[in-house]
Amino acid sequence: MKAGTLPSPEPVPNRTTTDPARPLGGRTTAGAVPQRVLLVDDSRSIRTLLKIYLMARNFEFLEAESAEEGLKVAEAETIDLILTDFHMDGMNGADFAAQIRANANPKLAKVPILMMTGDPNVAEVRALGQKAGISAFVRKPVSCAQLMTLVDTILPLPRK
């Protein structure tokens, strides 16, 4: 385990959850319909940490433990932002992003995608993500301020 990273939890059954978060401050959207964020990561602890980091915005969260599950959720739900890990069993984050970009639903195909990785070969992973059409890239471990800056850059606040 690298310093600054969270250990992966024991495997849990695949499931999708919706978890509304209350704003704690920062850029909030009082009175606006919450934007929906899909968190795609095989680590429950990383998904939880991302939710904590993003609680300053009035988001609703949907979760997927794999890219394959993430595709199903994205096609069934209205999503405003996707945060995905690169390394997951099965399909990786770049291939997941490419499938989102190729989706027949034009709204889904344009959803901002932020891809994360803890891979030491950052340049290669970033290049794969950019080729797939990601909107932003960040290396793990990511700080709250870094994540919020990227999210604020790629996902505008909703209008009331």
UniProtKB/TrEMBL annotation:
<feature type="modified residue" description="4-aspartylphosphate">
    <location>
        <position position="85"/>
    </location>
</feature>
<keyword id="KW-0597">Phosphoprotein</keyword>
<feature type="domain" description="Response regulatory">
    <location>
        <begin position="36"/>
        <end position="155"/>
    </location>
</feature>
<feature type="region of interest" description="Disordered">
    <location>
        <begin position="1"/>
        <end position="29"/>
    </location>
</feature>
<dbReference type="InterPro" id="IPR001789">
    <property type="entry name" value="Sig_transdc_resp-reg_receiver"/>
</dbReference>
<dbReference type="InterPro" id="IPR050595">
    <property type="entry name" value="Bact_response_regulator"/>
</dbReference>
<dbReference type="InterPro" id="IPR011006">
    <property type="entry name" value="CheY-like_superfamily"/>
</dbReference>
<protein>
    <submittedName>
        <fullName>Response regulator</fullName>
    </submittedName>
</protein>
<dbReference type="Pfam" id="PF00072">
    <property type="entry name" value="Response_reg"/>
</dbReference>
<dbReference type="GO" id="GO:0000160">
    <property type="term" value="P:phosphorelay signal transduction system"/>
</dbReference>
